[in-house]
Design a protein that fits this description.
By secondary structure, the protein is mainly alpha-helical. Helix content is 72%, strand content 0%.
Amino acid sequence: MDDVENRRHQMFVRVRDFGTAHAADFAATSLGGQLFVGLGNIVNQLDGHAATQVSGFGTAGEGTSNRAVSRQALRDTMRAINRTAEAIDHDSPGFADNFRMPRADNDQNLLNAARSFATKAVPVSDQFISHELPANFVANLNSDIADFEAAISRQSTGLGTHVSAGESIDETISEGIVIVKKLDAIVRNRYVDERAVLAEWTSARHTERGPRHTSPAVPPTPTPPSP
């Protein structure tokens, strides 16, 4: 949650605690009692959404790191095949045409080229192996492709979870604000003659403001000396 959302979450907690402290004044079947219970549910939901949001962000970050590592591993494997193909090309002109590295720095292009390498290398694998590529080089390439695809998927899933949780937080906060507005009328009516309790309520439902960021003062322009 961002700063504004955190401050509203904290306000909901204070209002919920106010309701707990004054539960004897609001029957469970009354509108006020039901609204305080509803706000408690809002707090619980926000806690859950916030945990999911953090988890999604962590998963996305992990996926981003793994994506970079697996991308480089796939490139290295492909370059070895490309380099070997160019060596074979001296005796078999045109051989390397099927094993060109993609020009664009694009992950989808890299995957497409890698899959092509894997398919086209199978029938000519003996020539690669004769140039000291390992006998399982095609299997290694397919493994690198799978690792890269998994990292991309993990990053995408994490981002999706993070964004979805953020939307749920927004919706839940909106519901909580409506509940607090309804409670404001009920509480003020209930404690109209009890200034101390009303002051407690006002403090509970107050949403703290974020810190102000002031621009640094611009020094005055010096007055040029008189001639």
